[in-house]
TrEMBL record:
Organism superkingdom: Bacteria
Protein name as annotated: Uncharacterized protein
Organism name: Pedobacter steynii
One Gene Ontology term from the biological process aspect of the record: DNA replication
InterPro entries given in the database record: DNA_pol_III_psi_sf (IPR036654)
Gene Ontology MF, one: 3'-5' exonuclease activity
Amino acid sequence: MGSQLTTNGDALRLFFTDDIYLIGGEDVFSTEEVTLSESQPVIEAVQGSTATEIPVPKVMEEPREVPSFKFLGKNSRNILILVNDREHEVSDEKGRELLRKIVKSVNLSANDFALLNYANYTGTSYAQLQQHFSSVLIFVFGVTPEQLQMKAYPQNSIVMEENVRLIFSSELKSLEEDPNGKKVLWASLKQLGL
């Protein structure tokens, strides 16, 4: 009788119905012996009269779950506005008035966007926000790209991350008192064409 060892992919598909993933570029069909450390768990598989040690793969860490977000607005146009204020729901009165002007300048209503206070969700990444909100445009006030686990971007300019336009700016209270920052932001808002 011939060897029962096979590397034929079609034959192996008959026996292995679950998905198999190649991790770290290892050669799956290698004939080299595997050396196990004492701390690595093994499973014994009996083949005829000989036992073979098979290493058990380490379980990869699950990605962080997307938190349940409490936000204002209906997000009908998939536009996210992130603010960062630990003391207020959105900002102080001057900051809220500035935000109203910004929203009005780009012809948005509360139905069009989701307004989220990042201070309540510190540590949430851009990927988690995108998974929940599926945004095409994000206004970010007082949250840095690094906090969202992104590369650095300039402030008050339109930047692209995949197919999403983002504008990072300082916190609304600070922006209200920064005429130069507001001027650059207004110029960027005009380019949005909403």
